[in-house]
Amino acid sequence: MKFGKQIETAAYELPADWRPYLIHYKILKKLIRLVVDELESRGLSTKWISTLDTKEAMKLDYSLDGNVENPHPCIKITVDDPTSIPPSGEPILLKLIPETQPISTQPLSIKIELVRDSEFFHRLLHELSHAAALHDTEKRRFLGNIHDLEGQLTVAASPHKSDLYVWREIFHLYVEAAIFKDMCDKQESCKRSQERLQWFTEELSRMNLANKLSSKRSRAALTMFLSINTQLVQFKQFQSLNQTAMTKILKKHDKRSGLSATSEFSTFAKNNAVFLEGILTSLFNAVQARIMTIVPQPDDYDCPVCYSIAWRPIRLQCGHVFCVRCLIKAHRKQLYDCPVCRMEFAVGNADAKNLDQSLQNFMLLYFPKEIKEKRKENEREQAALNKQKICTKRYNSTLYPSRPHITTATTQVAARDNNCVIM
Questions:
Q1: Which residues contact 141 (CB under 8 A, 6 or more apart)?
Q2: What does the pLDDT read at residue 401?
Q3: In the chain, what's the furthest Cα-to-Cα distance?
Q4: Which domain holds residue 186?
């Protein structure tokens, strides 16, 4: 399928009010024909232009000057020694030299304004500007929707509501889906985003997460969240179609005219800030910063040693946070440096003052189930250790009834545990 037909077909997948803002590929394609006609009317055929690469005495420079409102494409032909051109050798070039201009051995420059090419770039820039206006409008609308969702979700996923853990599952699944992992505008990336969004919605259905939400506010927030992501995927598709259309039409210009429209337009666009970079990225970042953070994930608060929630979080002087149980074990093994950054004696210097009380209160509020499980684990571990101490003590008293001063490694460990200042 030709791209002109392809873009028309793909347009029907986009919202109807976005379609007029797509680049009109077929119109630009017709304008290229007029550019070629103008060049040929002046004797500047694609074939002749390509031969200049092999002629050291002549050079052709194509440039795009002016600004977004008034682009000025032109050709500049430079001849090192005009007298070296035989009358029958370069009739095209001789035709371009004004009759009033005397031919000498001095280098000669001929500048040719391209009217039809100016029309082509004026049209292309107008359509890109038109699309940029849509970008601004949609960005404001998206941010407004994100603001509304933020308000809804702050209440619906409150730690005082029963839906908190369901939302945590939803967002965990969303992160796993990685819908916008690849933010480029290529067609393959858009297709991948569509597939990942479909997978996300199917998994929501399979896990019955929507029905697990108990409040109407939560269900409405989920509908809004899915709608925002659907629109973001569509917006990515819109950007991809326009980017592809622009790339293809410039390449077609290069091929048909023999000029370097692609490279010249790239420089022109950078100098005149034609493109609005990073719009999709900024919108996705807004979702990440303002929506995803409403429901904190326990993985972000794991102890880097045991990889479970850092209950009774001890913040060392280097800033790293660990659960108290892991630091007690570190003391037991006489490992006094930070396990992460190896700051000397960071563990050894920690005491009860290193307990991060505000973080502990936050964990109690948002991770009650995880903390309950961590407490049980700690209790089981402590019970096993106590049992080992009792068994060791009985064994020692049986083996050395008249030598109570004999101690084993286990009893020494127990003594160190009792002296640990962060317990």
A1: none
A2: 61
A3: 127
A4: 119-295
DSSP codes, 302-352: B-TTTSSB-SSEEE-TTS-EEEHHHHHHHHHTT--S-TTT--TTTTTT--G
Residue pLDDT, tens place only, 119-159: 999 999 999 999 988 988 999 999 999 999 999 999 999 99
DSSP state of 109: E
How far is Cα 129 from Cα 274, in angstroms, rounded to an integer?
A: 7
Percent of the chain at pLDDT exceeding 90: 60
Q: Of 265, 295, 325, which residue is a domain's last?
A: 295
Q: What is the pLDDT of residue 81?
A: 67
Look at residue 97 and tell me if it is in a domain: no
Question: Structure pTM?
Answer: 0.79
Lowest mean pLDDT of 51-65, 344-358, 386-400, name the range: 386-400
Tell me what pLDDT residue 188 has: 79
Which residues on neighbouring strands pair with residue 110, listed in sequence order? 77
Question: Of 295, 323, 355, at which residue does a domain stop?
Answer: 295
Instruction: Report which of 198, 163, 157, 191 is spatially closest to residue 177, judged by C-alpha positions.
Output: 198
Burial class (CB in 10 A: 0-12, 13-18, 19+), 209: middle
Helix, strand or coil, per DSSP, at residue 44: coil
> Which CA distances in Å does 395 have to 213, 382, 390, 391?
56, 20, 9, 6
394 pLDDT tier (thresholds 50, 70, 90): low
Main-chain phi, psi angles of 13, to 5 degrees: -85, -10
For residue 103, being part of any structural domain is answered with no
CATH assignment at residue 363: 3.30.40.10
Q: What is the pLDDT of residue 277?
A: 57
Q: Tell me how far apart the alpha carbons of residues 410 and 387 are, in angstroms, rounded to a whole number.
A: 11
| Spatial separation of the C-alpha atoms in residues 10 and 191, rounded to whole Å | 12
pLDDT at 83 over 80: no
